[in-house]
Each structure stands twice: as structure tokens, then as C-alpha cells.
Amino acid sequence: MNMHHRKKITSTQIKARDEQPGPKHFEREVPWWKNSIVYQVYPRSFLDTNGDGTGDLKGITAKADYLYDLGVKTLWISPFFTSPMADFGYDISNFVDVDPIFGSLADFDELLKTMHSKDIKVVLDIVPNHSSDEHEWFQRSLRREEPYADYYVWADPKGFNDSGNPIPPNNWLSKFRGSAWEWREERGQFYYHQYHRKQPDLNFRNHRVQEEIKNVFKFWLDRGADGFRVDGLKHIFEVEDLNLDEPVDEEAGVEDNLHYNYLKHPFTMNQPETFELVRDWRKIMDTYQDKLLMAQAYSNDIQDVMKYYGNDTDPLADFPFNFCLVEKVQNRSDVTGTRLKKIIDEWFDNLPKGKWPNWVLGSHDYSRVASRLGADLVDALNMLTLLLPGTPVTYYGEEIGMQDADISWEDTKDPRARNFGPDHYREQSRDPRRAPMQWDATANAGFSRGPSTWLPVNDNYKTLNVKAQSEARVSHLKVYMTLARLRQERSFAKGKLAFPVVTDEVLAFIRYLEDEPKYLVVLNLSENDVVVDLHHHANLKLPPDASVITRSVSDKSEENSPGSKVNLSALMLVRGEGLVLQLPFAEEIE
Q: Is the four-CA dihedral 532, 533, 538, 543 of positive or negative sign?
């Protein structure tokens, strides 16, 4: 490497932090999900076994060995329930059956049996906020049939305009753009839809609706599911007074008055009744043994998110999803050691006593890491989320560094994107990160043997795929597998956490436990090659050198090759590199 182009960085030190929830808790039996990687599969895009171009449950089952070898212990499957697919499965017309495009209940049972035989838990994606407008409940509610008449949020018009058209009861907006109210002439009322117009919101102020959804939970738990991720949880309740307008968000800088972010949302998010509902679900979960409840309830106010944990005496979700590394790190300029450390501290500092952290880098709603932040950071950020204390959540394909696909307007399927038209659809489309999994270099990336796929495969599939990375001596996939094995060691599963270096360019953390190996993870988050002096101005005693366990694929140097010793006073890192080091066993962290 050309040392003349390297930039020297001095370090700053902070005090060591005990791992949450703290060493005193580790003598208890640890729930399975604490030591697990949660791996999200978007079923349309994982593997197609019948050639129709859309992934299915049999495809997920067929890749059980892949998941096992990857080190995954928890499989989270996005919705596969009966649906007209207006929002690709998040509009459900039958909560207790499998849509034929994905297979059958028998296919689900086989998937569950296969995964359980490999000690992989299966978590389902439940969407209780709304149903499809083709659900029997809605069709009966539309006709005012009892007891379904107020299963949904219906409202009279505020009045009528000069053309005689009904005016919605308030200014509430849909997350898919435009009014959140849809008029139905048959009933002479508007219904509320927080999402797509074909996704009417259920009325959880009706206790019959609450019981219906509880029965959905029980159906899948009785069938053997290991838990749930609950989607759209913060939107489940609205204020009772439907005449209240939500205020304009002057700080958002949004000029489009039909864009969801044009308004603040005090009347349609995180209502107090939501937490009572989650408490009831928790009670159901606790009647079954060892089940996981994850909440999708992100908010810019971290205290709102933390409420979904509950507390020691009144537990709610096992954890709400931590989207801070997504929402607050949206482009390369956001990736600094100082910023990441602040985000990590914010979660730990607000975490209720005895509760467990989690780390999310992406999902079916967010641009992929390699596209959003840079391909050179793929390994480093996987090191961060897999080796910090807590449960990491990995979106399918992130283990090989998949990138967003380029989806044309003609191929765009996302209804939210299509609402913004051909000039602005790219800004809103979620399709690019939902492109098919890249298994190999054959036609359709080995995803489907059919003539076409529901979304186009990324053009880079011939070089970026699972098979190529499995056969390569060094690859993102092999780094990920090493990290998955490493996190099972006691130093990571039960150890403490300290940050010896926090600068804009570099973030380093140590995981350690008495009488166990100690590990130092160093991340160069800059776009330059650097030399890091980990001893300069150090308040935390570190040894002179350490041994390399694994590193980012971009580093080809002999100095940092796995198994070699490196000098911690002159540690060489290429741009975006992550390096996992083992410290000498006898050294104490002070």
C-alpha cells in the first residue's frame, strides 16, 4: 500500500460500558432470540420453484441449508397470506391462509418442520392495522351487516363541495400520498386508510376486532410459529374525534400538500390505547412457550419507540425495531464514527432496564446498504451490527452485498411509487431493494426457471451472487459467516462493550469477558486509506499488537491478512474497511 497517501488519525477514549442488560442477568436462561441473527425473507423475491416468476414457500424451504450454513437462527418471513396483492401481501384478505401464489398451508407446515429440524425459528409478519378491501369483513361492513358494521373506521363527510362531491372529515394523509379517506357510495361514508386505498384500517376501538386479531395470533401459534413481527403498529389507533385536522409540519420543508410528510401526525400515531393492545398480545404470547414479539413502530422521538418495550413488571414487545441506523444514516456523508457512536449511545441510554437492543441496517422498505452507503462499507457495517450487544436483523441479500436494481417506470410495481408518476417514482419506489435474490450466474440469477421474473433481476447478478461468493477464497458471504460464528462466543454473547476510538473517520469497539478471548473491532468509515494510532492519547490500556481474525474483502494487503499480527500504533486500513482483531489473552481491559 502507498503509505504516502495515508492519513494519520489519533484516537479518543471513552469509559467501558457494560453490555445491556448487564452481567447480572446472564446467569438466567437466555431466550433464543438474544443470541440469534434474524434474517428477513421477502417471499416474492427469494426463490421461485414453479417457474411463475414469483418466489414461494417451497423456495424458502429449499434454502434451509443455506440459512443454516449462513448462521441464521431466526427466519422472519414477510406476509404470505391470502391477498389481492395491491401492496404485495400487506393487503390481506384472509389472515389465516396462504395465498396460492406462495403455496398452501401444507407448504407452510413443511417449511416449519424443515426449519425446526435445523434449529431455525420461524417468525411471521402480522399486519393488524388494516385488511384488504376484498376481505369478507370489509365487504360486510360496507353493507352495514352486523356485527361487522363498524369493523373499520367510517366517517360522514364534512360537507359537499360546489360540484356535489363529498368532503373528507379531516385533512389526514395516506403514507402512499393523498387523502387517507376514500368515499364509498354504497354506504354513504368515507373509510380511513393509512396506507393504500385498498387497505382500509381496522377499527380497534371495536372489541370484536381485537378478538379477531387475537385469534389470528393463536391460529399461527397453534400451528407452530415461533413469533411475530407486527407491522404498522404505531398506526393502529387514531383519536376518537375524527373532525380534528393534523397540523402542517413547518420544519419538514415539504411543499407537496399531498405528501405524507407535509403534516405532523399527533392524531394518527402512537395513541395510548396502542400499548394496551400490545399488552394483551403479550399475554397471549406468554401462554405459549418461548415466543418472540417484535414491533415495527419507528418514530423520530426515541422515547415513543422505547414505550413498546414496556418494563420489567409490564413487558410489551421483546423489542421494537431499531431503525436508527437506517433513518439517521441515509447517505455516505452520514457515515462517521462520531455519528454512529451517538446513534448507538442513544439506543443504549434510552433502553429500559433489563431490555435487549437490536440493530437494523435495511429492510424491504429501505435502500440496500451497498447502494445507500457504499459497497466498500458492506463488511464493516455487518461487523458493527453482528458484533455489538443485541440482536442483528439482516435483510436477504445483504450478506453478499446486493445492490438496488434499476427498475424502469414500465417495470415498476410499487403502488406508492406509481402514485408519484413517471417523473418522481424513483424517489419513492421500494422495488429496487425487492429485486430477486442472486443465487448464481445462470438465467434469472438462479431465482426462477421461468421466462421472466416479477421484478427484473439486477444486471450485476453474473458477478455478484451466492455461488460465486461461496466458491471465492474471500467474499462478503464468507466474512458474514465468520461473523455469525464469532458472535456465538461468550465474549460476544455475554461480554461487555467499550469504545477505545471514536473519531469522524474511525470507530473501534472492544467486546470482552473475564477469562474469555477479547476482541477489538476497528472500522474505517472514511473514503480514504488511513493509518490509525490506537494508543495515542489513550485512556484505555491496549496491548501493542493483536491478531487478525477477519477483514473486509477490499483489503488485499499481506499486513492485515487473517492470522497475522498487526501493530495497534500503526494500523493500516483501506477506505470503508472493517477489521476484527483478537487481543492477547492475558491482557486486561482498563
A: positive
Q: Mean pLDDT, to the nearest integer, of 229-237?
A: 96
- State the average pLDDT for the chain: 93
Cβ within 8 Å of residue 15, ≥6 positions away: 498, 539
**CB burial string 531-541: b at 16+ within 10 A, e below:** bbbbbeebebe
Q: Are both 308 and 246 inside the same structural domain?
A: no
What is d(CA 267, CA 59) in angstroms, rounded to the nearest whole number? 42
Mean local confidence (pLDDT), 184-194: 97
Grid look-up 418514530 returns 299
Residue 109: in which H helix or E strand, if any?
helix 105-117
pLDDT digits over 365-395, tens only? 999 999 999 999 999 999 999 999 999 999 9
Number of domains the chain contains:
3
Q: What is the pLDDT of residues 325-368, one digit of tens each?
A: 999 999 999 999 999 999 999 999 999 999 999 999 999 999 99
Which 3 state secondary structure label does DSSP give 511?
A: strand
> What's the Cα-to-Cα distance from 377 to each of 328, 331, 398, 530, rounded to whole Å?
16, 12, 11, 15
Helix 207-223 / helix 272-287 crossing angle, nearest 10 deg? 30
Pairing of strands 506-512, 565-567: unpaired
Confidence at residue 438, expressed as pLDDT on a 0 to 100 scale: 98
Average pLDDT of span 94-120: 98
Residue 191: beta bridge partners? 154, 182
* C-alpha to C-alpha distance for 343 and 290, rounded to whole angstroms: 30
pLDDT of residue 5: 41
* 291 and 415 inside one domain: yes
If pLDDT is split at 50, 70 and 90, which confidence band does 313 have? Answer: confident
Q: What is the CATH number of the domain that holds 406?
A: 3.20.20.80
Residues 6+ apart with CB under 8 A from 362: 326, 368, 369, 372, 395, 398, 433
320 & 442 share domain: yes
**Torsion, CA 36, CA 37, CA 43, CA 44, rounded to 10:** 180
Can you give the residue range of the structural domain that contains 465?
Answer: 30-128+207-236+271-481
Over the stretch 409-464, which tens digit does the pLDDT of each residue have? 999 999 989 989 999 999 999 999 999 999 999 999 999 999 999 999 999 999 99
**pTM: predicted TM-score of the whole model, two decimal places:** 0.93
In a domain, 467, yes or no: yes
Cell readout for 323 is 431503525
Query: The domain that contains 545 carries what CATH number?
Result: 2.60.40.1180
